[in-house]
Each structure stands twice: as structure tokens, then as C-alpha cells.
User: Fold this.
Amino acid sequence: MRRRPPLTLLLPALAGAAFLLVPLLGVLADAPWGDLAGRLADPGVRQALGLSLRVSFLALLVSLAFGVPLAWLLARVDFPGKAVLRSLVLLPMVLPPTVAGIALLQGLGRRGLLGGVLESLGVTLPFSTAGAVVAAVFVAMPFLVISLEGALAGLDPVFEEAAATMGAGPLRTLWSVTLPMTMPSLAAGAALCWARALGEFGATITFAGNLPGTTQTLPLHVYLLLQRDPAGATAVSLLLVAVAVAVLFALRGRWLGTARPAPRRAAAPGRAPRPRRERAS
Amino acid sequence: MTPSATPATASPAGRAAPARRSRLLLAAAAAAVLALSACGGDSDADENGASGGGEDVTLTVLAAASLTDVFDAAGEVYEEEHPGTTLRFSYGGSQDLVAQIRQGAPADVLATASTETMESLAGQTDAPETFARNALTIVTPPDNPGQVASLADLADPGLRLVLAAEDVPAGHYGREILDRQHLEVSPDSEETDVRSVLSKVQLGEADAGLVYTTDAIAAGEDSVRAVPIPEDQNITAAYPAAALTGSEHHDAAAEFVAWLLSDEAQGLLRDAGFQAP
Assistant:
């Protein structure tokens, strides 16, 4: 029997959906459709787009290199202070990005905690493309770690144990058993991580600065463009909205709640759906 | 009165709970709406609060980033002398403020660091009044790691130089000063307002930057060293202010702009290092 959703929930839900939709419609309505190709072919936009792609993919590679072991550690190893480490991983997700930028300056800037060490190695991060990558990794890596950790925790250890009994070492097991089995989650985490890196603004402008071709990524460019050429800014915004929609589309199975067999855990008795309480009427 | 109470008590207990729940939800929704309207409605509240004496108004003043300290101080003085008037300041790069007004940001007064940015809003402001002038200076960290002594030193490609972006008045003036000396510089970052240039130097991330003399004074000698630019090589920025024609409190806005030219306001500006208009 289908019940009509109560109005007291339906109305605020619709209002919430409209609230999310209206700004995006505004971008669509305001976009310079006739001149879109020209606006996006603008040398400044192309330079910022190229830099953004470079920075975001490098950030993804670095996040994979450090984030996969981190997720594995959180999911597979018991050690004191694990909750603290997990909070540390989550922190950049809830931290204001500008604060992340200030923290990066105090930690990795020229006068920061590790600034002297880095400088003696000939590395100066602020005002360099490497700095923009570092800012993006700081804010985006948590998305990868959290996504993958959840999948690893949901994976039945029997597969890894079987691989181990067949003589595979821990790295071989991770590479040939664990990662392939968690591939959908890894891909979803990587896509979110990349999208977050592509959109990074506050930490970048605070830590890495703003120089066309070196640290001025597309979000910084669009911010400055709004002051000079609002129609151009809308065109670039449209491009970034399209990228975001494409990422969600690629993730449709995982994040949009369509039917897909949940990991084995869901079948555990404790997780069985609770019988719905019937209303007396 | 007993009969009217009967239906309520007679209704099944199972229905009473959802009814109460939905009332709670309604209350929550109402609270949310109230909270939202409270956020945006303080100016209305101020108007309603007007009683007998003067009308309570809140003026939103968009001001160039270089005015941050002096306007904060001047605002306190002004509020004391004009009971019922509250000033809210929003600081940023002048070009950013102009963009905000073009996008319809509700504001009453605009004060920029260049006549050009002000003129780009022609028609949306009253006739602007120049109320201060300001020169530029080189700033370095206190220990001057780049050994900067003159404008020519800024052309050293190894120097970490930070300028304001070309669209920012301070960035525009800075480039003009360098161009006049035929100096080619390669900045490491183009910041979106002059105070961001200052903070990059204060943090020691940049070896040198070009800011207004007043910014260096506001930062203090402990945090930056000012390397003065000779007068014949320097540029003087004019600071115009104007009430916005779209202001809801236009008279109060115009009064504040006029006050900026008073002896009192001029004294505060002079103390902060600004020059006479």
C-alpha cells in the first residue's frame, strides 16, 4: 500500500530542492550561450583550465600514493590513537579552506615549521604549482581515504586470508585481491577527490597565491573574471558545473542510491531492515 | 465546556502522536523561517525601532582594503557622535567592491582607492568626493632577506615579489611606477587586494611587495620594513567616496561621505598616514 507523503515533510523537502536548484538555473539562464565557445577559448581561460587539469590530476596521484595506504591502515590495523588519526583525516573536509591555507603556510611555508627543511632541499612551496598541488591534496585526499576505508572495512577478510594462506605477501594481497575487490569504491573516492581538487579555491589562494599559468587555477580565474567580465565568469562557471555533473553521472551507481547489491555486511542480521510500524487507522 | 473537550480525549491515542509530531515539525519549519528572516532583516528591525528622537539606521560601507584600520577607528567615532547610526564595513579590493555593487549587493557608501574604479560605476553613485590621498612604498620582512633598497632591486628575478593584481588599484599604480622606471618584474603572485600583499610579506613568504605607505604604518615596524620610494618616482592614489543612488538610507549615507571631509575625520586619516585630499 502506498502512502501519500505528509505535506509537513513534502513542502520543506520541495523548498530544499528548489533552494539547491535555483542558483544552478541562474547560471544556465545567465550563460552567454551564443558566445560560449569563444568565451571558453579565451587564452586566459585555456591557460587556467590547463593548469587546473594538471594540478588536479597531480593532486589525485599524490592522494592515491598516500591515501590508499592510509585507508588500509585505518581499516586493517588496530593501534592506539586510531580514532585520533581518523579525525585528523576527516579534519580538512570540515575545515574552512582558507584556514587550511593558513595552516599550510604555518606548516610548510618558508617560515613555517618545515620551511627551513624544505628550503635546504631547494623546495619552496608558496607561489609555485607544487604549492597549488599541495593545497589541493590537503583538502581532497580525505574524500579518497574515507571512501576507500569504508569499502575496506566492508570487505570480508576471508579473501585476504585466503590469499595469505596461498603465500601472497601483504603488498601482493593488497594489489591483487583487496584493491580489485574495492575498485568501485576506489574509483568513486578518486572521482570525488579529483573533483574536490579541481574546485579548490581558498587554500590555494591563501597558500599558493595567484599567478596566471603557475597557481591561478580555474576557480581563482573565475573569481577574478567576475570583477572584469561577469559573462565570461558565468561561461566558466557553466563549464565547472558541467564537470561536476559529469562526475556525479560517472558515480551514479554509488552515490545516487540506485539499486546495487550492498557489500556483504548489509546481509548481517543486525542490519536487517526493521519492520515498518503500521499506523493505527 | 465539557462537550467540546470530549472529541479530543476520545480520539485514538495512535493518531494523537503523529499530530503532535507534525505540529513539532511545523514549529521547526517556522523557527527555520524566522531564523532566516532574522538574518536578513536587521535593517527593518532598526527602522521599526525608531522612536521619538533620531531614526536608527545601519549603513553598509564598502571600502578599499587599504582603509581597513582607519575606517574601523573612524566608524567608532562616527557612531558615537551619531547615536542611532550603525556602520557596517566590508573591505576588499576596490574592483571587487565595484563588481559586488554591479551584482546588486545592498550597500550605502562606496570608498575606493582610485577614481577610475569609482567612475566605472557612474550613474549608480552620487558625485564622488576625494577625501584622502596615499603614496606607495616597498615593504619587506623586517630582516629584509632580499636586500631590497630601491625599486630597481625589485627586478631581480630571484626575488620573491608579490604585487596586487592589475585590476586592483594598488596593482595598477605599482605597475605604473615600475613601468616609468622601465623595470621588468616577474611577480610570484598577484593578490586580489593590497592587504593580501601585505600579509604575504608579513608572513615572510614574499621578500618584497608594493603597498600603500599607510599599510606599512598600520602593520608596524615589528612586522614589516618600509623601503620608501622617492617622491619623484612615486604615484599618489586618490581615494574617492560616494553615496550610492540605490541606497535605502541615502541622506544618512551622504552625511557620512560629507563627514569624511570634516576636520575630525581628516585628523584620523592624517594620523594613519593618509595625505590631504
